[in-house]
Structure formats: C-alpha cells, structure tokens
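Can't paste images in this forum, so I'm doing it all in text. The chain is below; anyone willing to post the predicted structure tokens underneath?
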Amino acid sequence: MRFTACLLATLLAAAPIFAQVTTEAPPAVPGAKPVSIEHIKVHSPAIEGNLEGESADRDVFVVLPPGYASHPDKRYPVVYALHGYWIGAEQWMKEIHVPQTVEGAFAQGAAEMILVFPDSKTLYDGSFYSSSATVGDFETFIAHDLVAYVDAHYRTLASRESRGLAGHSMGGYGATRIGMKQADQFGALYIMSPCCLSARTLEPSDIAELESFKTPADMAKLSFKAHGHPTAAAAWSPNPKNPPLYFDLPIKDGALRPDILAKWAANAPLDFLDQYVPALRSYRAIALDVGDQDGLKADTGKLHEALDAYGIANSFEIYPGTHTSHVAYRVQDKMIPFFARNLRF
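Text version of the structure:
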C-alpha cells in the first residue's frame, strides 16, 4: 500500500529531516540589474473562519523588475510561484536563490515581469493549495483574492493572458490543481516536480503511528515519513464535527477507511484531469519538468502522457538533478524565459 502525499519518499531522499535544503545556485550573470522585493500581507476572505485557525492575513513576497520604478507608466505580466511542502515562501525563495536567479533571467534576455511568492504554510506544514473548511480555501486565495490584490496595488497587465502560474513539489501540485480548476485566471503553466498526482493509500507501518494521533500537538511525535498524512487529511478529508483536529484520517481501529481514501483520491489530478480537458486546452503553453533522480519523475511523466493523450500541447523535460538540487537553475534558465515567451506583454 502507498501514501497519497507521494512527495514524502522523495523528500526523505532529498533533504535532511526538518532542515533547510541546500541547493546549488547558477553563476551570477555579469551586469544583472537589481530587482526590488516587497514583503506584504494580503487578507484572504477565502481563508477566513477556517477551523484550524490559520491566519487569513498571508505573507506574500512581490519581486518587482529592475525597470519598475524607472518606468512609471509601464505595466507588467505577473507570475505566481507556489512553494512546496514543509517550507514557506521565504524559505523557497532562498532555495531557488531569489533575487539572483530572477535578475539573471532578465539579464540573459527574458522580458521583465512581476513575480509573486505567496506563503501557504499551515499548522500541518502545507495547504496543498486545496479548498477545505478545516485549513481554509487556499485555492481561491491564490486564484482570486491574491490576484485581485496584486492587480489593485501594482502596475499589472490585469488579464488572464498576462498571468502565469508555477510551482514546485506541493506547489507543482497546486499549479496543476489550480491550473485545471481556475483556468480562466491564468494563461500559461509551468509545473515543476509536482507531488501527489496519483491516488494512493497508506503503508501498513503508518497505521499504528497514526492511531495515536489525537491532537495537533501529536504532529511533533510523528516520524518524517508519516508527517504528511495529517496535512493531507486537513486538506482533503475535513470534518467540522471532529474536534480538535477537524479532519478524518483514513484509519480507524487499525484498519483503513475506504470512504476517506476515496476523498483523498478525489483530489488526485491524474484522476480528475479528464474533467478539465477544455480548460487545459485553453492555455497558450504548459511546461513540465522533473529531475532524473527525483522520485516524482514517474508521475510527472504520467501527467505529460495524459496531456498528450488528449492532444493538449505541452513540453516535458527530465533534467539531471534530484528533487531540489537544480531547481534554481530551472527558475533562471527555463521557467522565467518560458513565461517571457508565452505571456502577453
């Protein structure tokens, strides 16, 4: 039996437990002009009232291109970039070496754009960018509340064709999920090492460990391998009548619960992609990439194959690297140039 949040096996191999991931940075590009970064708070009505107590005032980092201040009449496309599990936006920016990689991309010829890094870390270390009474509606936060705020407060090109959505790992799942369900908001997708694409179940060894999970404080007692199960439950099997957790785990009395596993499976993009074919066809461009040593390589390939089966144009690249080792290079040399080619300026 397998676990729905399939990123965990990859993360075990890719990073020290609970530690900042050390990643390689591409060489600095000579002559690169500095960007400016604003750390703001964005209030999200979609997250208000969640049972878990997540703040509806979210940290967001806005990266403004070198020409933003000196060209006050110019408007820019926007790319929304989603971080992965366990970390927040600020840590992911360090892992992908922002601002250096953004400055490098512009210095190498990519047209200037605004990049937005929203923080979706939660009590259980990740929202899965899903919609849940327990954790909050992070899907709507990203696709509507955040987009509306950025368009109202920055000089954006406020149209679908000028918005891009990207993400890595859990953020890649978010870009896939939101990209399907909110296609009217974005014009191009760049999906990096997406986790959690397939419907899966628990390992037998996890069952005893999760049976003792009764309160949020028990999160600290879980092994790293089991750590993502409560996160998935908060996002995908909420239960307002089950305090203090307000979610259902897919086990009871030592046995798996097929009804809860079915809820988790309903959130697996490879299983619901068929419902969003017209939406996916509406994108100007979709790109997927994954490292050749990444445990998520197989499922990323399946997503590419599913898109191909429907004749949905997409590119797919397997590059040398682990889950995290070369993502900074991909941001500078691939992701930002992709949006420079495929967003409307």
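The two ends are 48 Å apart (CA to CA). Residues 1-20 have pLDDT under 50 and may be disordered.
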